[in-house]
Design goal:
about 260 residues, alpha/beta, Vcp-like ATPase, Chain A, domain 2, Rossmann fold, 7-stranded mixed β-sheet, 4-stranded antiparallel β-sheet, globular
Length: about 260
């Protein structure tokens, strides 16, 4: 069971309101300064997650244990990250779980990598391919901060040139030309394994589906996930004025052997 008492070295999400949260690491003798006053970490140590602490100006902050979503929202971004709504569907359609072996490309800032690692731990592994070395450095820092780096192997390699692993459960692609990876993905996947691609344009989807059909993948489906938040207030409940519209198309398929 995870420790519910905050100690030195613990990560804490300081919650002021839904729009102002701060992810911090607790260190003895240190303070954290905000526009609502500073918080002494010595006053946080020994408290339970879920309790509150007052700033020097008397504002109350709730002390939460950070979730995977909290870590992802606070990640350093080398690239545009995939939204949680799409990550959830990718995980669902890739059929992954504890012990799964996953190949992913490209790593980017490591947001999707983090989610995949979270679901395959403690006995699974994510092999993440990325051609940009500087992106891997950012991803490494983010994965370590989220506490799941040990379940990931980062690879500075163009996946189009080949996948080192074999008999993997899933291949997940978030890159510009996923159709070029389909043949090598077929070779790396176990029979019945899943391939999942995420693409922003329909032209990419068409090329990917054509490649899947030519390489003995079946049960091919493409979907788009639209999320709308609702502003709830007595007598005024309605959809929020602003929303995230199109983010990308998700295509998934199964490997078959004929």
């Amino acid at each position: 069971m995870c420790n519910e008492i905050i100690d030195e070295g613990s990560d804490v999400l300081l919650f002021l309101d839904s729009k102002r949260t701060y992810l911090v690491k607790i260190e003895k003798g240190q303070d954290f300064h905000t526009h609502k006053g500073y918080i002494r970490f010595d006053e946080v140590i020994g408290r339970k997650y879920g309790q509150s602490v007052s700033s020097s100006l008397g504002y109350e902050f709730i002390l939460f244990k950070p979730s995977l979503h909290d870590y992802m929202r606070k990640m350093r971004h080398a690239t545009q990250i995939i939204y949680p709504k799409d990550i959830a569907l990718i995980i669902f359609h890739s059929h992954i779980g504890c012990g799964s072996r996953i190949v992913e490309a490209g790593t980017g800032s490591g947001a999707l990598t983090s989610a995949l690692a979270h679901f395959v731990k403690p006995s699974g592994k994510v092999y993440s391919y990325e051609v940009r070395k500087e992106f891997l450095e950012t991803a490494k820092k983010n994965l370590k901060r989220a506490g799941i780096f040990e379940y990931v192997e980062l690879k500075n390699k163009d996946i189009v040139l080949g996948i080192d692993e074999n008999e993997v459960d899933s291949v997940i692609l978030d890159l510009a030309t996923p159709w070029l990876v389909v043949p090598v993905a077929y070779e790396a996947l176990k029979s019945g394994g899943k391939i999942v691609t995420f693409s922003p344009t329909i032209e990419q989807v068409v090329k990917t589906v054509n490649a899947l059909e030519k390489n003995r993948f079946i049960d091919i489906e493409t979907i788009e996930n639209i999320l709308r938040r609702i502003k709830v207030k007595a007598g005024k409940t309605r959809p929020e004025t602003l929303m995230i519209g199109h983010t990308g198309y998700l295509t998934h398929a199964r490997k078959t052997i004929k």
